[in-house]
Specification:
heterodimer; A: mainly alpha; MetI-like fold; 79% helix; 0% strand; B: Rossmann fold; OB fold (Dihydrolipoamide Acetyltransferase, E2P); 2 domains; five-stranded antiparallel β-sheet; 19 strands; 25% helix; 34% strand; binds adenosine-5'-triphosphate; binds magnesium ion
Chain lengths: 273, 354
């Protein structure tokens, strides 16, 4: 009995140690975003200001073309994720069912290669295709991240689905396509949810591609926040507010889907070998 | 319903020959059990009939139709898998109706057929459940329901009872037989359990290393096993095998033990040939003036007594249905009925015709 309690305390302590820096930084950002410039520079530092500077948030929306960037982010992430699912789910199924270990390795390499290494040839390609200035370069380059991610997760899911289920369906009279659509796909639904969410998170937070490929009109949110840094003088309050606003959608998504995400990450981990 | 004919069927996985030329004739409506030790190729043969494994050679006919190279979905068969393979995301009624849905059957027809199958199997109250909300026995029934609803030419079962506990297994054994009596569909049933084979089959096919050892009714296999393998495989506890030769109209075991020969055996013909003498433990009786031996082991279950005797260095297992009082190391005399003795040629393993 006491053993159990001790174990529990130990676990909570460990959780505290690992999680507290993250929470601390988050709270710090929150605090920054709600302080006036004077409080930011104060010594000793003020953590909870006397007056909340809601104006920081107002400023983010007022001074920037924030809604436009939000819309850009939404388009890029949404399209990159949907396309990744359309391509990646059947591909993952094919690889899992054909036991195509070699293509699995290719996917893994694609996952490990830094996206940046694709950037320069792709940039030239986009220039040549006259796509610069539209959102398409960013969508396409995000696929470099999202497609392998989806394929990898779905592969793991389809591999764990018992083959007898599909055999039973084909004996019941299903064509290969019907087997996929009516049996394999519904069973892999948790996998689809996980790859959907992870793909959104990876794509939404991606920053490097945007810095290179986006102009003033086609910026996504992370790039927009980064650009706020390059004013003559950094105003921490609005910057923190902007960063929080950018994080918010992903944060909410993560909170709602934490169970699926954990399941998906561990499924991938076990299958990693 | 249809007959099934398998002609010289072969299956290789790469260089490994798993099925090495199998011929089986199954009459319309027959309940045939494929039995054999683990790894002998039972599942592979069944999957070849189902169309889940390509045949490497030979032909398979269902009714008059050659199906050797047809896809599984065009063969009009139904299969029950060992792990049931119920669609986890569908309710019991959707599971059972899946094949009809694929055939684009009408709502009315589908409901009627599912309801009929459910009432045969006692599943009426479970139709809206998901598979994971069912017990092992119930899942088993749903898997059978899915097969019944199809009304196929042939039912295929691959060790459908091996995931159930002993008691449920006996019960489901009865239910499957009852079901077959009721709807009469030709059935091929795979098991490695010879008790299942003996109790359920109209006809048993004993498979060993990808070849058919013998085909016959349960009693034919029990009474006249064609070879040493079948003799040893069918029957529990297993038959006693004693190596020796025929000398002076008697069977002389290697250790010198003399045993009675069945009548009508042309003893002269086998003089000097190495033979194997087979007698089932349950065909041995205690007999005052019989062969004398020492009790090496006794196990009583209440209904029967199982004993191992040492007769002149030869181990003989006996199963007594009457409750005899014997003790470890005690001396006991036994008698064998010569008409229940089996003689095999040691070199070929074949039964010596009597
Ligand atoms: N896909 C495959 N590739 C290679 N060898 C296989 C394959 N499937 C089965 N085998 C081999 O074929 C042999 C027969 O297998 P099968 O599954 O038919 O045996 P079984 O009689 O059903 O045994 P059990 O009673 O254990 O189910 C085994 O030796 C097995 O290793
Ligand atoms: Mg098997």
């Amino acid at each position: 009995m006491t053993h159990k309690i001790l174990g529990r305390i130990g676990f909570l302590f460990a959780a505290l140690v690992f999680v507290s820096p993250v929470v601390l930084f988050f709270l710090w950002m929150l605090s920054l975003s709600l302080k006036f410039e004077i409080d930011n520079a104060a010594y000793p530092p003020v953590f909870i200001p006397e007056h909340f500077a809601w104006s920081n948030y107002v400023k983010v929306f007022a001074e920037n073309n924030f809604f436009r960037y939000f819309w850009n982010s939404l388009l890029v992430t949404g399209t990159a994720t949907l396309l990744a699912l359309v391509i990646g789910v059947p591909a993952g199924y094919g690889i899992a069912r054909l036991k195509a270990q070699k293509s699995a390795i290719v996917i893994m390499i694609a996952r490990m290669t830094p996206g940046l290494s694709f950037l320069i040839p792709m940039f030239l390609l986009f220039q040549w295709m006259n796509l610069i200035g539209t959102l398409w370069p960013q969508i396409i380059i995000h696929l470099v991240v999202t497609v392998p991610l989806v394929v990898w997760i779905m592969m793991g899911y389809f591999e764990t689905t018992p083959i007898e289920l599909e055999e039973a369906a084909s004996i019941d009279g299903a064509t290969s396509w019907q087997v996929f659509r009516m049996v394999a796909l519904p069973i892999a639904k948790p996998g689809i949810v996980v790859s959907f969410i992870l793909s959104i998170i990876f794509s939404w937070n991606n920053f490097v591609f945007g810095v290179v490929l986006a102009n003033r009109e086609t910026r996504t949110l992370p790039v927009a926040v980064y650009n706020m840094l390059s004013f003559e003088q950094v105003s921490w309050g609005p910057l923190a507010a902007a960063a929080l606003i950018v994080t918010l959608p992903v944060l909410i998504l993560t909170m709602f889907a934490q169970k699926e995400i954990v399941a998906g990450l561990t499924a991938g981990a076990v299958k990693g070998g | 319903m249809a007959s099934v004919r398998i002609v010289n069927a072969k299956k290789n996985f790469g260089a490994v020959k798993v099925i090495r030329g199998v011929d089986i004739d199954i009459a319309d409506g027959e309940f045939v059990v494929l039995v054999g030790p683990s790894g002998c190729g039972k599942s592979t043969l069944l999957r070849m009939i189902a169309g889940l494994e390509e045949v490497s050679g030979g032909e398979i006919y269902i009714g008059q139709r050659e199906v050797s190279h047809l896809r599984a979905r065009d063969r009009d068969i139904a299969m029950v898998f060992q792990n049931y393979a119920l669609y986890p995301h569908m309710t019991v009624s959707d599971n059972m109706g899946f094949a009809l849905k694929l055939k684009k059957a009408g709502e009315q027809e589908m409901n009627d057929k599912v309801a009929r199958a459910a009432s045969i199997l006692g599943l009426e109250n479970l139709l809206e459940r998901l598979p994971r909300q069912l017990s092992g026995g119930q899942r088993q029934r749903v898997a059978m329901g899915r097969a019944i609803v199809r009304d196929p030419q042939v039912f295929l079962f691959d060790e459908p009872l091996s995931n159930l506990d002993a008691k449920l297994r006996v019960q489901m054994r009865g239910e499957i037989r009852a079901l077959h009596r009721r709807i009469g569909t030709t059935t091929i049933y795979v098991t490695h359990d010879q008790v299942e084979a003996m109790t359920m089959a109209d006809k048993i096919v004993v498979l060993h290393d990808g070849l058919v050892e013998q085909i016959g009714t349960p009693l034919e296999l029990y009474d006249r096993p064609d070879n040493l393998f079948v003799a040893g495989f069918i029957g529990s506890p297993a038959m006693n095998f004693i190596d020796g030769r025929i000398e002076n109209g008697e069977f002389k075991a290697i250790g010198g033990l003399a045993l009675p020969l069945p009548e009508g055996l042309p003893a002269g013909k086998f003089a000097g040939v190495e033979l194997v003498y087979g007698i089932r433990p349950e065909h041995i009786r205690a007999k005052a003036d019989g062969i004398q031996g020492t009790v090496d082991l006794v196990e009583g279950t209440g209904s029967e007594v199982y004993a191992k005797l040492d007769c002149q260095g030869q181990a003989i297992y006996c199963l007594f249905r009457e409750r005899i009082q014997i003790e470890y190391q005690q001396s006991l005399c036994i008698g064998l009925d010569p008409s229940l003795v089996h003689i095999f040629d040691k070199a070929t393993g074949k039964r010596v015709v009597v």
